[in-house]
Write a structure and sequence with these properties.
The chain is of the alpha+beta class. The protein folds into two domains: about 1-35 and about 540-610 and about 620-670, Sandwich (Immunoglobulin-like), CATH 2.60.40; about 70-200 and about 255-525, Alpha/alpha barrel (Glycosyltransferase), CATH 1.50.10. It is about 35% helix and about 15% strand. The chain is built from 19 helices and 21 strands. The protein has helices at about 45-65, 85-90, 95-100, 105-125, 140-155, 160-170, 205, 240-255, 265-275, 280-300, 330-345, 355-365, 385-390, 420-430, 430-440, 465-470, 475-500, 510-515, 520-525; strands spanning about 15, 30-35, 35, 130, 130-135, 180, 185-190, 255-260, 305, 370-375, 395-405, 410-415, 545, 550-555, 560-565, 570-575, 585-590, 595-605, 625-635, 635-640, 645-655. The strands form six sheets. It has a six-stranded mixed beta sheet with strand order 1-2-20-17-13-14. Strands 3, 15, 16, 18, 19 and 21 form a six-stranded antiparallel beta sheet that branches. Strand 11 (about 395-405) and strand 12 (about 410-415) form a beta hairpin. The longest helix has 24 residues, at about 45-65. Residues about 1-10, about 15-25 and about 665-670 have low confidence and may be disordered.
Length: about 675
């Protein structure tokens, strides 16, 4: 019998039965036993467990085909510039999340092996020192760190990763030998920063020249739009112009602070989650508040601060124009993510909604400039992506927001990136942010109930139909979304098996495109949270689970979970045990880091008529009864006998407890 098969347990306050041990009841978590027969298994539950099974085989295939025994990716090339480290980690970015949701037992050691193998690989390639990025922008560092954050959350007991979390965070505190942070101006000294400290410029790829032949960057236009004599992309075909643009980028974009550096706050909060060191919290709040004060003074969210601490110092006094800022290359896509990461990081340290103004401001800025009924073929930089995501085609019109701003005004109109408004509402649960989200839906110009089959590098983008489901307006979303996720796994598995095992050393994005692990839908349905913010967010959840018998995080085998509703005062979740022979036991924890307090639990009971009489040809049916019990804890234990289900309405006080890394309970065994 495996570690995750049926093991009798005890150790909780059992409602309706006498505790079988001598532990005082008030010291043990509430235990609720499901009694309602599952009956015909819900399609969503069967599909969910099937998805877990398919993912278990898919990640193994990827690991076998694309990695070496020590965990590194198969790659024999060189990387002469600063760019590229994130692409190695992004191949595995959601693997720790899959384990934490309930993936295979051996996925966690595999993920750690891949992280350590890739880190050694990047050190050999010259991109990393002391197991950390030597110095690059936080748009990409945030992407690279998702895997690390996930490992820390999945196994807080691993002292190696705990030590790394502290060491990495210390690089950004005042007094660090790296010198990344300037406490006098409350800024990071350079957009490229890391274990080498502030690195001047943007690296040899762009510092020496920025030419027109860079087809991948051409859609985004000129990095700086005020360099004399350079007004179009074609002007960069002139070598003198290419050199002048590169030097201007080095001197203006390659120094001072930029708003995407706010993503560094998650690195420091990740370390704080272990021991609540006030030094870590103080830095996060100081840095976030510095940006909030600049935004309040300017009336807009600026994207750049010069070495002296002045907004616009290297951009003619303008609040826009910084590296990975409002003008180039992604605009609100990068600014919105960074301000959300910063605001949420600060919120995790205290009152959740206290600093959400940092994230509201850039979203409000673009919302105020919205346009209606824009043609499908509007010249937007990310059009192919959002067109597929929304199911749009030729002849369609959309309501769009500008994503970028330059000396010529707002431009690059695209549909609202719903994930950002979703996170703003989800984290703080404020009425004003709910109103913002409803306005986005009302003026979107497309049907939020549709589920379109796509998977981009962020493995996100299905927030709209999920939100419609939570509102009771899209009841079959779980089944449709799970079918879509299964199809994506099958598609990527087919891509892997159809090609040669050796990968093109010049295509660092290849691994991301065939990564078969999908967690967006599982995260939404089982934990009640949006997919993690891709540019550096921490793995948050409304609820999560621990397998009590296996003493590990995640749903037990055979168990499916569905968060049906959530709001500012509670959560409704349904749990189903699909096994006909095994009892499954789990701990439901309120919050991804145990931050919520469950005040009272309400559930439906029944099943006293089961299993019924063998002479009866029909499945037994009988009355169901309503039950309630006080909890006053951030978790409770659920016992799911074979073929039983339970629907729980959990009254909650959100963010009533400190966010913290939580270990899984030890295995409970009945004393004989």
């Amino acid at each position: 019998m495996s570690a995750r098969d049926d093991i009798p347990t005890t150790g909780a306050r059992s409602l309706g039965t006498s505790p079988s041990d001598s532990t005082p009841p008030e010291t043990r978590p509430v235990e609720i036993t499901a009694t309602v027969p599952t009956g015909p298994p819900p399609a969503w539950a069967v599909l969910q467990r099937h998805l877990f099974d398919e993912l278990d085989g898919a990640w193994r295939l990827f690991s076998d085909r694309y990695t070496e025994p020590d965990g590194r990716l198969r790659f024999s090339g060189t990387i002469p510039d600063r760019d590229g480290a994130d692409d190695f980690y992004e191949a595995f970015f959601n693997w720790p999340a899959l384990y934490r949701l309930g993936g295979a037992d051996d996925l966690l050691p595999a993920v750690k092996r891949h992280w350590e193998g890739v880190t050694a690989q990047l050190t050999e390639l010259g991109l990393y020192r002391n197991e950390f990025e030597r110095g690059y922008d936080w748009f990409h560092q945030g992407e690279a760190l998702l895997m690390f954050y996930g490992i820390c959350a999945a196994d807080p007991t691993d002292q190696r990763f705990r030590e790394r979390a502290r060491r990495f965070a210390e690089q950004y505190l005042p007094g660090s030998t790296t010198g990344n942070y300037d406490p006098a101006t409350r800024t990071l000294r350079s957009p490229h920063n890391g274990s080498d400290g502030p690195r001047p410029g943007l690296g040899p790829q762009w510092d020496d020249r920025f030419g027109h032949e860079q087809r991948g960057m051409r859609p985004y236009g000129l990095p700086l739009r005020d360099v004399p004599g350079i007004t179009s992309w074609q002007d960069l075909a002139d070598e003198d112009n290419a050199v002048r643009m590169g030097h201007a980028m080095r001197d203006r974009l390659g120094r001072g602070d930029t708003a995407v550096d706010l993503a560094a706050t998650a690195l420091v909060v990740n370390a704080w989650l272990y021991d609540h060191d006030p030094r870590l919290a103080d830095w996060v709040l100081e840095y976030v508040d510095a940006w909030r004060e600049r935004a309040a003074a300017a009336g807009v969210m600026p994207d750049n601060v010069g070495p002296s601490g002045k907004v616009g110092e290297d951009h003619g006094g303008r609040w826009y124009g910084g590296h990975y800022g409002w003008t180039w290359p992604h605009g609100v896509h990068s600014i919105g993510a960074a301000t959300l990461v910063g605001a949420i990081s600060a919120g995790m340290l205290g009152r959740a909604d206290a600093r959400l103004d940092l994230a509201r401001r850039p979203l409000d800025q673009v919302w105020e400039q919205r346009r209606t009924a824009m043609p499908y073929d509007t010249g937007a930089t990310r059009r192919p992506g959002w067109a597929h995501a929304l199911g749009l085609g030729e002849g369609r019109t959309v309501n769009a927001l500008p994503t970028r701003v330059g000396p010529e005004g707002w431009f690059d109109h695209q549909p609202a990136q719903v994930a950002y408004w979703t996170w703003l509402w989800w984290f703080g649960m404020c009425d004003e942010d709910r109103a913002r989200l409803e306005r986005v839906r009302e003026h979107s110009g497309y049907d939020w109930r549709e589920v379109h089959a796509f998977r981009d590098k962020e493995e996100a983008g299905h927030e709209a139909p999920w939100l419609a489901y939570l509102d009771g307006d899209n009841p079959d979303y779980p089944e449709r979304a799970l079918r879509m996720a299964l199809a994506q796994v099958a598609h990527r598995t087919a891509l892997m098996t159809a090609e040669a095992t050796d990968t093109d050393d010049l295509d660092l994005h290849k691994w991301q495109r065939v990564n078969p692990v999908v967690t967006e839908v599982l995260t939404q349905l089982t934990t009640g949270a949006p997919q993690t913010l891709y540019n550096g967010g921490l793995p948050l959840a409304r609820v999560r689970y621990d397998d009590l018998d296996a003493a590990r995080p995640g749903l037990p085998r055979d168990v499916a979970a569905l968060v049906e509703h959530l709001d500012a005062v509670g959560t409704t979740v349904q749990l189903v045990n699909l096994s006909a022979v095994h009892t499954r036991r789990l701990r439901l924890l309120a919050g991804g880091f145990g931050e919520h307090l469950i005040t009272e639990a309400h559930w439906t009971g029944g099943g006293e008529h089961c299993p019924g009489d063998s002479h009866d040809h029909h499945l037994p049916a009988g009355p169901e009864t309503e039950h309630s019990a006080p909890v006053d804890d951030n978790g409770l234990h659920i016992v799911l006998p074979p073929g039983r289900r339970i629907r729980l309405r959990l009254d909650m006080r959100l963010n009533a407890r400190p966010f913290a890394h939580h270990t899984s309970p030890t295995t409970f065994r009945r004393t004989r």
